[in-house]
């Protein structure tokens, strides 16, 4: 099987037959992007992580049916993840095989084989726990590090494992939260849609969206000059690229800029814009996200945590976001159980 990977997607370019019960016989070859160079690359087959070495890996034993194939790449500096790529996975099909798990299980292993098997599993487990102690040791190293800012919440994911987060909402006035909307996105809250501020030619650009009470950082890839803002915010700045916003009242908000001191220079559409929770400017990230609406009677939902950061932004006044999440250990235990079944392959 041949697979092409870029920063955003995983695509199967040449499929091959994979049958239920096969083990150690199918190889997956990966074409990886330049940005994956010098990073740790792992393929994930239905939740089973397999390291990619030299652009290839052996496909593990899989159940019949559709199998999700993903690839992630990351680099750690000390105990911290410095960079993480997590492209959208793809799907392939595992067909029937001749292997019968029930018949295999009826053959009880001899004592010597059984002891050898247990020793292999314990050795693998010991190695795995040693290598993963930074994510298993409780409060000192949580998988997701979150903080709230006003009514919004941001989660920073410092682990290569995937997570599920429970997103809930509370009305500060004690009312219902049914049918409210929320923006669930990565680090960058800004979806790239600007208006021209009613100027002609398009000299000014206006970043306009609903913002709940809290602190935010608006940054640009080029120098810009402040022109106007909504009345529900104050701001300070560092140079002409980073602006620290404080929203004092939840509601529709805007900040308007021009490219330079001249009032005749048209806006350059290549200028990158990032809006993020908190008063710290970080490296630019393209917008990834969606608007979710609660159904009648709901107060929240579950969502896959985004790498390397997930932001939750209520789009109604007086609504506060609350997020709870699992730790890496909740993912490690199923992986270890699956490993024991496969003979200690972690």
Q: Can you characterise this structure?
A:
The protein is mostly beta strands and 346 residues long. The protein contains four helices and 26 strands. It has helices at residues 101-106, 111-131, 133-136, 329-341; strands at residues 2-5, 10-14, 18-19, 27-31, 40-45, 48-51, 56-58, 65-77, 80-85, 90-95, 144-149, 152-157, 164-171, 181-185, 194-195, 204-211, 214-220, 225-229, 233-238, 242-247, 251-258, 273-277, 289-293, 300-304, 309-314, 319-325. Strands 3, 5, 6, 8, 9 and 10 form a six-stranded mixed sheet that branches. The longest helix is centred in the middle third of the chain and has 21 residues, at 111-131. It is elongated and about 75 Å long. The chain starts with a strand and ends in a 5-residue tail after the last helix.
């Amino acid at each position: 099987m041949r697979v092409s990977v870029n920063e955003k997607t995983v695509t199967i370019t040449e499929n091959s037959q994979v049958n239920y019960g096969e083990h150690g016989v199918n190889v997956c070859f990966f074409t990886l992007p330049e940005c994956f160079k010098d990073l740790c690359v792992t393929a994930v087959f239905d939740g089973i992580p397999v390291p990619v070495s030299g652009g290839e890996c052996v496909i593990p034993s899989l159940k019949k049916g559709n199998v999700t194939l993903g690839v992630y790449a990351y680099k750690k500096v000390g105990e911290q993840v410095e960079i993480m790529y997590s492209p959208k996975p793809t799907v392939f099909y595992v067909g029937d095989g001749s292997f019968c798990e029930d018949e295999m299980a009826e053959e009880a292993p001899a004592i010597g084989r059984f002891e050898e098997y247990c020793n292999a599993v314990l050795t693998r487990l010991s190695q795995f726990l040693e290598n993963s102690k930074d994510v298993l040791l409780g409060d000192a190293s949580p998988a997701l590090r979150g903080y709230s800012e006003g009514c919004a919440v941001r989660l920073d994911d410092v682990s290569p494992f995937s997570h599920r987060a429970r997103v809930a909402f509370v009305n500060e006035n004690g009312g219902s939260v049914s049918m409210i909307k929320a923006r669930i996105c990565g680090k960058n809250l800004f979806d790239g849609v600007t208006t021209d501020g009613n100027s002609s030619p398009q000299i000014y650009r206006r970043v306009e969206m609903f913002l709940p009470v809290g602190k935010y950082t608006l940054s640009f890839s080029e120098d810009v000059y402040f022109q106007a803002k909504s009345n529900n915010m104050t701001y300070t700045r560092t140079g002409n690229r980073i602006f620290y916003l404080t929203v004092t009242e939840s509601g529709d908000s805007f900040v308007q800029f021009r490219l330079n001191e001249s009032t005749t220079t048209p806006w350059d559409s290549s200028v990158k814009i990032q809006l993020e929770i908190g008063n710290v400017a970080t490296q630019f990230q393209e917008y990834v996200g969606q608007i979710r609406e609660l159904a009648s009677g709901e107060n929240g939902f579950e969502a896959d945590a985004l790498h390397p950061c997930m932001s939750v932004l209520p789009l109604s006044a007086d609504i506060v976001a609350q997020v709870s999440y699992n730790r890496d250990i909740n993912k490690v235990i199923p992986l270890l159980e699956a490993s024991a079944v496969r003979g200690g392959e972690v």
